[in-house]
Amino acid sequence: MLKFFRIIRQNLLSEGKTGKYLKYAIGEVVLVVIGILVALYINNWNENQKEEKREILILKSLQKDFIENEKIYSKIIDNQTFVIDNCKSLIECLERKDLKYKRDSIISLIYYGAFNYYRAEPILGSYQALIGSGDLKILESETLKSKLAFFSSEINQGFEDETLSMNLLNTLHYEFKSIGTLFLDNRIRQTVGLNKVKKDVEFQNKKLIELYHNPNILHPLAMKTGVENNRLKLYIKMLEYSSEILTLVESELEEKK
What we know:
This is DUF6090 family protein. The chain is mainly α. 76% of the residues lie in helices and 0% in strands. The chain is built from 9 helices and no strands. α1 (2-14) packs antiparallel against α2 (18-96), α5 packs antiparallel against α9 and α6 (162-175) crosses α9 (218-255). The two termini are 41 Å apart.
């Protein structure tokens, strides 16, 4: 092709057709520029196609993670609510000081309330991989990027009362140690390796009275209930964030179909 153009130029110059040569030269430059622009356009189009495919893969990975995060937070909210309800019932027992009130449930209230502790472990693998690889810029939605950053920040910050929560848990374990296995039935005792015992109602009543009049229990139990309630609020908020992110991700995927 270049040889063909060169022959035309040489013929025009040899024939003394300078004006036609100049017009031809300008036309040739225009053609070259157009060729370059077309090549750039095709190259950019190819790169955009590659980037869009990469974005779709990223969005699908995020979608998978946040479907799981919704499940994780939904489950832990149920568990956390269960802990709080048991703590409240145990507080009611301590305040009533009635040996017959919820007597058969007392050990369950202790184990599933005072002694219970849950912590959510959300999935952030896809987002952390994006940060590490620098591919976060591939995501077009600034709203999605902002939500992901906020979600990650909340997780990294952690629960502000974590230390207090663990201290209260340890305190309650210590204060309830005298009654910890007293009300367990023999089936459960054997499951955890304890010997069978004959039920001694009088001894149980004595220990319950001691428990109900122990001044070191009600305050940490009430504080634990408050702390666990704050944790529940955090988990509810994180579930909302997870749902918002998932909605944004699925909306982006729908647009790219």
